[in-house]
Amino acid sequence: MDRFSAMQIFVKVAEVESFAEAGRILNMNPTGVTRAVAFLEETVSARLFTRTTRVVKLTEVGSRYLDDCRRILAEVAEADAAATGSYTRPSGTLTVTASVLFGQIFIQPILTEFLDANPAVVGRAMFLDRVTNIVDEGIDVAIRIGHLSDSSLSASRVGTVRRIVCGSPGYFETHGVPAVPADLQQHRLIAATSAWASLEWKFGVDEKSTVQIQPALSCSTYQTAIDAARQGWGLTRVLSYQVGDAMISGELQTVLADYEEEPLPVHVVHPEGRRASAKVRAFVDLAVERLRANRVIN
Q1: Torsion on CA atoms 62, 64, 66, 72, rounded to nearest 10
Q2: CATH number of the CATH domain containing 236
């Protein structure tokens, strides 16, 4: 049994937690998958998986071995890429993810600029209001808003955004301006109900001041909530970049600025570090340059 191939099979079994599914993905007979894992277990003299009729889980040894296998396979892929030139010339499919509005406003123009300059690359934009798993979902580059929890990712900080309460000048003329967070309970509030939203609005750098809101209008998207606020219907709470143009034009104004939470960092992240392919390194360089120059997030 070729050890390199066995490592590839082992990694896939660990990822999908199934011998049969790994075989299907790799177009292999399940018996061949089992033999490959057994070969590695005999080689390292340790069990790599705990197996029952329903569950396949890594052992402690298997978990450590998985990290080593991934590193070895990545280094081999890097060597192959360098030999064929793909390590120095951007090519292949580039998958980029960001939250929906951030992706639409900022990342889509950067991605299309990058594709124009690199015709050998095919772009794939995944703009989702949920936290994606970069490795499991095959993502090359992600733009993260908030403090990073995964220290294994390579990250470049490009700016910050603030969580703000805003409304139209017309609304404030009619209904007045809230002076403290508790005053929000006397106003007509518009809330987004996406995966990131909460009906408990926190204020202050220590986030100790909270207001449990009762929205007069709940919206499934941030854009709908923002549009209602621009029309003077009520107040909404969003991230500053989401209303950057409306703030600059004066269509929306912020309130309770003295009670804002600590700004949230914005990072461009990717999982491959110094072994990143040419397409990833080139896109990250462009994205970092463009985002750092954008005054809406700085």
Answers
A1: -140
A2: 3.40.190.290
